[in-house]
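Handout, section B. The chain below has 160 residues.
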Amino acid sequence: MTQIARPAAGKPRRLDAFELPSEPGNERLALVRVAGTVKGLGLSEARLEKLKTAVAEATMNAIEHGNQNRAEIPVEVEVTQDGDDIIVAISDQGGDAQAGDKAAAEPEEPDLVKKLEGGQSPRGWGLFLIRNMVDAVNVTTNGQRHTIWLTMRTGGAAHA
């Protein structure tokens, strides 16, 4: 892959954009492609692995919850760099549907003991995991379009 020069601060540069059918398992395709796109941009191996995990989880959520596993509705992925920030935007078409259900509310923090005792669903770790893997998470909904923005810093503010 051709290396892209680091952009000037404040001037985002699109590094890649692609779509995937909303089929279970395609989260692996997203994480491999994003990892290839950001390789060489200053992330340590550990931070790259965290980004890959977050991308996979967010893509799985978009496939399953946003697009309801409907292969004909693609998940869109865009990777940009803005100074020391690598930003991965993952979009689905479940915005209005999600706004009307429990997904619109802040999800309950996963509690391992409650889950083991049956007090919480064994599912529901995705957003919690994502938030703990990257430096910043933002979620936007514009009509049907629901996007999760994952930011990973490559500079001195980044943690291991």
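Note. Helices lie at 26-38, 45-66, 95-99, 112-117, 126-131. Compare this with the example in section A.
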